[in-house]
Amino acid sequence: MKAVLALADGRIFKGKTFGATGETSGEVVFNTAMSGYQEVLTDPSYKGQMVTMTYTQIGNTGINPEDVESGQLYLSGFIVREYLDCYSNYRATMSLDAYLKENGIVGIQGIDTRALTRHLRDKGAQNGIISTIDFDPESLVRKARAIPSMSGLDLATGVTCSAPYHWTEGLWDLKTGYPQVERKDLKYKVVAYDFGIKLNILRCLVSAGCDVTVVPATFPAESALAMNPDGIFLSNGPGDPEPMKEVIENIKKFVGKKPIFGICLGHQLLGLALGGRTIKLKFGNHGSNLPVMDMATRKVEITAQNHGFSVDILSLSNVAGLAHENLNDQTVEGMAHKTLPIFSVQHHPEASPGPHDSHYLFDRFVEMMEQHKA
Ligand SMILES: NC(=O)CC[C@H](N)C(=O)O
User: Fold this and answer.
1) Which residue positions are annotated as catalytic (predicted)?
2) pLDDT tens per residue across span 52-80
């Protein structure tokens, strides 16, 4: 069956359906990861976006019940060059097509994803629409232009958990799968703010020795401090950090009181709470093969990333310094507070999908909490 992708600037791509049928819209971004489409599909940070994979064959490892980053699929559309229905993986239990259908996610296959990616790279990420019911280019472009821009959208408070809970599952192991860790064996009490948190972040925190209590995005700082945690963690999440005023005010109350570690949206919110500003990038970084330098050690790590916004480090020059830099586009990849035990990264040390080069950052957080305790 026919499907069409129309971009707000008028460019049209004709393909075939896969997954659910109907009409869907969102900001179109490209992801350069060669594997891990299931983690991409379940990453809450993709809410409001349609993702095109630059890797050409998608579907060949099927879908399994373990490689999920949350309890549902958040992106609004999935765009691939060639969908493979014949999957092969010892853990797979269903095909990607069936998974998308079951979850109501509209996909499009058979389009020139290289041309689409180059277009987004040259013109910038923009809104688009996928339809399997309307094939009139003018009508589709009109609809794509009517979608609200990602800038100014608070999407994170809509994907957060509804009540606090404890997390005790550690990182996956080939022999044991996901281990359950006893709370008595976890030394550092961490309150983790959920702005759309990826499960592997929670597993990394547990495996690093943290007793994690996950709390909703607007959980009052006073109540979090009353738990007497050793550290505060600020998670990834979808949308623009700038309109999240209540959350930003809340984060300010931890500064100077507790060690803080932020990832992606959490890093951006921390930048705003410290008095800085954030900017929207032309097309951002989405993938699992992006080089980053740790400015303290001058070591280069290959990282997983998924962001469209960035912290303007110059706006924080009196408060925090550049701690990590993206070696492709020289954007801010991490910052460290000049005097307090506070740091954050734009990339995803939990990977999932991606290399594990940056796992050390969870140990850095633990060391920070250890020193602060002493
Ligand atoms: N993965 C994330 O946390 C993304 C943060 C933010 N929504 C951005 O696009 O920049």
Assistant:
1) 264 (nucleophile), 348, 350
2) 999 999 999 999 999 999 999 999 999 99
CA nearest ligand 1 atom 8, residue: 307
Number of domains in the chain: 2
Interval between CA 292 and ligand 1 midpoint (Å):
17
**What local confidence, expressed as pLDDT, does residue 284 receive?**
97
Q: Please choose, from the candidates 222, 221, 226, the residue with its C-alpha nearest in 3D space to the C-alpha of residue 234.
A: 221
The verdict on 176 and 97 lying in the same domain is: no
- Domain co-membership, 163 together with 201: yes
| Domain shared by 288 and 314, yes or no | yes
Q: Is the CB of 237 under 6 A from ligand 1?
A: yes
Please give the pLDDT value at position 9.
Answer: 97
Query: Do 53 and 80 meet the contact criterion of CB atoms below 8 Å apart?
Result: yes
Question: pLDDT by residue (tens digit) across 184-219?
Answer: 999 999 999 999 999 999 999 999 999 999 999 999
Instruction: Choose the residue to mutate in 264, 267, 269, 345 for probing ligand 1, maximizing ligand atoms within 8 Å of C-beta.
Output: 264
Query: Among the three residues 120, 145, 170, which one is the final residue of a domain in this structure?
Result: 145
**Among 360, 308, 353, which Cα is nearest to 58's?**
353
Neighbouring-strand partners of residue 106? 19, 77
Identify the domain boundary among 93, 121, 145.
145
Of 229, 308, 314, 316, nearest in space to 270 by CA: 316
ipTM comes to 0.98
- Decide if 350 is catalytic: yes
In a shared domain, residues 14 and 63: yes
Residues 197 and 324 in one domain: yes
Q: Crossing angle of helices 245-252/265-273, nearest 10°?
A: 70
Instruction: Say if residue 290 carries a ligand binding annotation.
Output: no
132 and 57 together in one domain: yes
Answer whether 215's CB lies under 8 Å from 224's CB.
Answer: yes
CB-ligand 1 contact for 265 (6 Å cutoff): yes
* Domain region containing 18: 2-145
Q: What would the two tokens of residue 250 be? A: 């809340």
Q: Which residue, 349, 358, 366, 359, is CA-closest to 198?
A: 349
